[in-house]
Amino acid sequence: MFSEAFKRYREEIVQLSQVEVAKRLNISKQLLNKYENGKSQIPNDILRKLVDLYQLSPVDLYSIISGDSYSDQHDESAMLLREKFADGETERALNTLIQYPQLKNLLITASYYDQKKQERFINKLITLIKTIEE
Hints:
By secondary structure, the chain is mainly α. The chain has helices at 2-14, 18-25, 29-36, 44-54, 58-66, 75-99, 101-111, 115-133. It has two domains: 2-88; 100-134. Helix 2 packs across helix 3. GO terms for molecular function: DNA binding.
């Protein structure tokens, strides 16, 4: 089934949790769960976002639709897809830092802290972001 193939792709290739994907799509985890379990049809706008998020080429999308999995037989292919996804995520993060130079400067400054101070800084930043997200 198409929706289950997207779930497998999320778990096996991009290795993101439902919570992480739902946040990136700006939908609830429960709604993503319904899509992945075939209880609700994936609307075109969400499908486009998934294709963009997972950085799927037409060939990759066809493989998912046709049920071709990236299992043990396709370890090399799966590894390349994971790397492509990770590179895209890194590029997105770097673009955000370029877009917000104050954040970039803050992180650069923190990179000069000693290890203990860096850990405290990063932990506080993560806590702040999680608080804002809730």
